């Protein structure tokens, strides 16, 4: 998939069709996506080792929810945060500032922009702000002992470049799953 390609037109039509569903169906879909995100994010706390490889996939349910309807994505994000507060409080810093924020950022960008490049940069910006907030505002060592608590321009550029690449991957994954799931949700 190209970096500057336009996103498929059927995304807008599926978003419009999804909003016509009953409020109950949309809430059930939102709750299902939030539960999936919670299970995936909690895997890091419940299954040390392999769970840390599973927990980044918590972005997908939030991203899919936000791609269908931004309101549903934000509600799924909020519900997942509350469920993590109850089930695995140790993951409470990671999800709202990294995994979940990336899903919301990319999902919102799908509603606002038509070019992949704009969507990727928006997702990267959200993730960069989240990571830098954890590092420099809350002094939470999200990247381990590699970075200190003091601001570094070089580290910030590195974080943005990583976020850009990571966001690009998630845009492609989101488009792939959106196309596969549009018949179920729309």
TrEMBL record:
<feature type="transmembrane region" description="Helical">
    <location>
        <begin position="31"/>
        <end position="50"/>
    </location>
</feature>
<feature type="transmembrane region" description="Helical">
    <location>
        <begin position="93"/>
        <end position="113"/>
    </location>
</feature>
<keyword id="KW-0472">Membrane</keyword>
<protein>
    <submittedName>
        <fullName>Uncharacterized protein</fullName>
    </submittedName>
</protein>
<feature type="transmembrane region" description="Helical">
    <location>
        <begin position="159"/>
        <end position="179"/>
    </location>
</feature>
<feature type="transmembrane region" description="Helical">
    <location>
        <begin position="120"/>
        <end position="139"/>
    </location>
</feature>
<keyword id="KW-1133">Transmembrane helix</keyword>
<keyword id="KW-0812">Transmembrane</keyword>
<feature type="transmembrane region" description="Helical">
    <location>
        <begin position="62"/>
        <end position="87"/>
    </location>
</feature>
